[in-house]
Amino acid sequence: MKILKRSLLIALLLIGIAGAYLMGWMRSHTTISAPPATWSENDDIAKAWHELSVSMEAAGAELMATARDEHDKKEGFQALSSLLSASLEMKLTNGDPLRPAFSDWMSAHRKFLGDSPDAVYLTAEISGDHDYEIIGNKADVHYLGIMLYGRLPNGWNRPAGNISSHDISFDEQGNFRLILSRNKPSDSEVNWLKLSRDVHMVMVRQYFHDRPNSQEASFQIRNLNALDARGDSFLKTADGLRAATKFFNEAFRGTLALDRMQSKTLNSIDLPDSVDPDFVGIFYPTDDNAYFGTNFLIQEDEALVLEGVAPNVEYWSVALMNRWMRTFDYETYQVDLNNSRIKVDDGRFKIIVAHQKPSAEIRNETGVENWLETGGLKHGLVTFRYQLYEGDEIPTARLVKLKDL
User: Fold this and answer.
1) Region label for 155, one of left (φ > 0), alpha (ψ between -120 and 50) or beta (otherwise)
2) Residue 271 — pLDDT band, cuts 50, 70, 90?
3) By C-alpha distance, which of 247, 276, 250 is closest to 261?
4) What is the DSSP string of 169-200?
5) Which terminus of the chain faces fewer neighbouring Cβ atoms within 10 Å, N or C?
6) Closest CA relative to residue 387, chosen from 312, 266, 290, 282
7) Strand ranges of the sheet holding 336-338, from the earlier edge strand across to the other edge
8) Domains of the chain: residue spans and CATH
9) pLDDT of 167-178, one tens digit each?
10) Which pTM was predicted?
């Protein structure tokens, strides 16, 4: 019995030693130290990777310097992670304009640059030197918009063409075909967008009044000039990495610039006195949307009252985001409303943004039924979208005490 106990103790000791050795080995191989700066000097792909990693480091450092609290810091790094993921998919994985493919920008978790719970955003990298065909089916989409983006001489984006479901010809099943080309097709009946040489991206927007219960549209894009669409990408890896780095940097700089600008008009939809140059060029607006918004700061006993004339359009909405331009958790909280759910009285709307739903007594006295929930966050961004809007009325915002509603 003593020999058995001794053998068991020795076995347990050996197992412990082996386990400790294995954990130490794993730690030594998963803990990374910064290599000498010279590792990437003699290879272009390595240089491009190094440039991306430096941009990530710089963004992280600036985020840490500006984060307001733990939640803001966490959301900031979530935003950077989303942005990095989308940048690599768009510009490297799907970045070859000779063999374009659509990238789905957003999800409930990958969010940046002002997502919308009602919208789907698809982009493909293209070139003004080629002709393309997009075929698809609109399914249950309320609004379908296809937008081209070119570049100004300073590198900033410019709207370069747009067509929406109001102008696209569909067959009885909702199918459509769209040509993107420099020259007008011989078939005068086909849907067409003219390409200019500086065009680098096509974006497809889908908007829904009830997205969870709607079927998304389907799309395919192909290069009409490509002789062989098989084989490896013609895009150089280094070029794709640098394009991803550029998009990552521009989007992050633009997000910070918008926060700086709108912080000057806190709790007000007044336009800032000046436009931060970092803000221009990275946001991909559509000609079909009018945008309004403000940064807000709301205490526990306060509410932000949003009011205005309800626009006479088929779709308009309001959504809450954090300062990193990511919508609040719309799977958990009521953080967005569109005109299918916004109660309007005598052509006007009133929306309350507050940490808690106003009491039934307050709602009965004020007639307010529209409420957006902050999820406990004091800081944030409120954004209006008016689609195909031709009016000049803009919403207003005012901060009040809950007791004064």
Assistant:
1) left
2) confident
3) 276
4) ---TTSEEEEEEESS--S-TTSEEEE--TT--
5) N
6) 290
7) 289-297, 379-387, 316-321, 336-338
8) 46-95+235-257 (no CATH), 96-227 (2.60.120), 288-404 (2.60.120.600)
9) 999 999 999 999
10) 0.88
